[in-house]
Amino acid sequence: MIGPMSKLFAFYQGNILVSGVNQEIPDSSVCKSIAGAVPIALDPDVAVALSEPTELSGYEFIPLREYFASSGAESADRAGRAYHLLNWERGTRFCGRCGAPTKDKEDERAKVCTSCGAIVYPRISPAVITLITRGKSILLAHNAHFKAGMFSLIAGFVEPGETLEKTVAREIFEEVGIEVDHIRYQGSQPWPFPDSLMLGFRAEYRSGNIKPDGIEIVEAGWFTRDTLPNLPLKGSLSRLIIEEWLAGKQ
Ligand SMILES: [Zn+2]
Q1: Where exactly are the structural domains of the chain?
Q2: What is the pTM of this model?
Q3: Ligand 1 mean position to 164 CA, how many Å?
Q4: How far is the CA of 109 from the centre of ligand 1 (A)?
Q5: Cis ω on the peptide bond leading into residue 194 (within 30° of 0)?
């Protein structure tokens, strides 16, 4: 499977190895110099999680999120997939049901337990993000984990038994205390931190006063085009949805 087009995705603590000149992913031939690189099941690429930041002449590590912002969607998705699958490989070496070692399933991307036969597929955790409009304003919130001054959309994970629309309404009510209407799907983005799929929505304000939950959301408010705070990095679905609103698109 590993051929001339194969790439090496090398990670060190959320950073990815790229060439210093134009931030390109190295070819897999570089992996001769890196111990522990493993093929990604059913994929031409190889990936490795390093415990030390290996020094390779002409290459450097940059935060994976920054790579997403600069590389374009196709390269970002390929690197994200490598990171997602590498983490999955590392987390499924043993069966969660009986504890025996697993091995690669030959005909699809999955692990199979060598003892009880349980099958484990890559886990994908859906999460929603929503741009809430109220007239000419949008609601943006500062999460306790964000950098100072950065505001983004309300986000949260889908719970078992929930439709995406119910997740949107519940997360907004829990985090900022308002109710919304007209929930509409906008688009999606793989987000491998560690295994999410972000699903973007828009919704319209219906009722209530903003009341941050004080745990996840420490500050939230209505912002117009002229009063926007610092926004999430380019390359994120949140940023894209905000920019589409700025451009006047639906
Ligand atoms: Zn088992």
Answers
A1: 8-91, 93-122, 125-246
A2: 0.86
A3: 32
A4: 17
A5: yes
Give the model's confidence band at 249: pLDDT under 50 very low, under 70 low, under 90 confident, else very high. Answer: low
Question: Measured in angstroms, how far is the CA atom of residue 118 from the centroid of ligand 1?
Answer: 5
Beta bridge partners of 184: 202
Over the stretch 207-218, which tens digit does the pLDDT of each residue have?
999 999 999 999
Q: Are 129 and 238 in contact (CB under 8 A)?
A: yes
- Residues 136-174: tens digit of each pLDDT: 999 999 999 999 999 999 999 999 999 999 999 999 999
125-246 belongs to CATH 3.40.190.10: no
**Angstrom distance (rounded) from CA 35 to CA 138:** 49
Q: What is the whole-number distance in angstroms between the Cα of residue 50 and the centre of ligand 1?
A: 28
* 201 DSSP β-pair partners: 130, 185
Tell how far the Cα of 86 is from the centroid of ligand 1, in angstroms: 21
Give me ligand 1 centre to Cα 42, in Å.
22
- CA of residue 9 to ligand 1 center, whole Å: 30
CA of 101 from ligand 1 middle (Å) equals: 8
On the question of pLDDT at 1 being above 60, the answer is no
User: How far away, in angstroms, is 85 Cα from ligand 1 center?
Assistant: 20
Higher pLDDT, 3 or 32: 32
Which strands, in side-by-side order, build the sheet including 102-104? Answer: 102-104, 111-113, 119-120
